Amino acid sequence: MFRASRIALAASCIAMAGLLTGCGGVRGTATAGEVDVRQLEVGTYPVDRHQYDQYPGDKAALLEGMRMSDAVVPTVQIDPSLDVGRGSTVVAGAEHALDFVAKVSKSVFDNRKLITGYAASGADKPDPPGQTNPAPDATAVTNALFRFPDQAAAKLAARELEDVDIAVSAENQKLSSTKYPDAYIHWRPGVPTVGAFMAHKEFVISLFIQRPNPDSADLVSWVEKSLAAQLAQLDKFQATPQDKIEDLKVDPEGLLARVAVADRKGRTPDTATFAVFGANHMVHRAEDEAAHLRLVQDAGVDRQAIADDSYVARTRDTAAAQRLAQGLMESEGARYDPLDAPRDVPGAKCLQLNSKGDPEREYRFRCYVTYKRYVGVVTSDKEPDVRQKVAAEYALLANSL
Fold first, then answer.
1. Range of weakest confidence among 6-10, 21-25, 57-61
2. Signal peptide: which range, if any (predicted)?
3. Inter-residue contact 224 to 141 (CB < 8 Å)
4. Which of 209, 235, 261 is the last residue of a domain?
5. Is residue 15 pLDDT above 80, yes or no?
6. Which of 233, 264, 269, 311 has the most CB atoms lying inside 10 A of its own CB?
């Protein structure tokens, strides 16, 4: 999983001889059979039980967009060949939505009052090195889900988005689906891509699909396959009623408060550095969607909280958390080598980026720790810092129960 930020927090203490020494204790008391977390060396990381301000201000819609990570189907569940994740994002507003439709579509989103959205993309092979587009011989599906105030607005938006999109080029032609007659589909003959819009409830599904060859029947079949999977996923999702979105809480189950951060002050929802997502977000963001889908389902993950460059995932139980941590470590592959973890942090395991990795995209150090049903993953470009951070993560998880 790629790094969310290039900022590495400076450590305030020095680790020596592979052990943490130096800077401060931790409040809390030990339970029978557990380490006394007050003795862990956590630097200046706060590890006391905490609760963030729950009021989202003007970012309530962003919280609903985070929830929608579970409304979008992972591409590997559209077709098993689409197991290479190409990333995902919350759609924060009309300007951001233009990344997934014709650039002249803003008036549609404004007039139909787009609330939020979530988009994910996957392919059957990685993008070429240094590129952000799929290779010409790849199959790739980008699936954006847009939320509108009600079903009527969504229906109008789907039709208008299609009208705007198809008018971009005189060469565009409409296609149709017998399975989904309400879907708007178009392509440009000779070009191996297809676009589609379909309203469902208060949502609009927007698809952009690339195939190796410009075959209209084949492209429509992929639209149908994608819609089948997406509609099934969407029907399992419980959308927040429009008049309740402003009441959404920033951290309703206290999961963000379990992620170790250097500074807790001034926190507001941010999709990269202060967010709670559904389990599917871990799959959408993974390079290997198939492996992460298996991990998430096996462990019964239901939430992931991201704060700065670390995260906590909540699993079914203690055994599931341990399996997930091990699986996440193994998923990093050959670009990471094992690194001795702090010996006084129970079960902690660490990795160090080697010459096969890309330090511009990945952190040099990653550590994993479990506590009951929780898995904490911390990262840093500095070894002393990551050692303090993994100790702090364990202590925080213990103090938060």
1. 6-10
2. 1-17
3. no
4. 235
5. no
6. 311
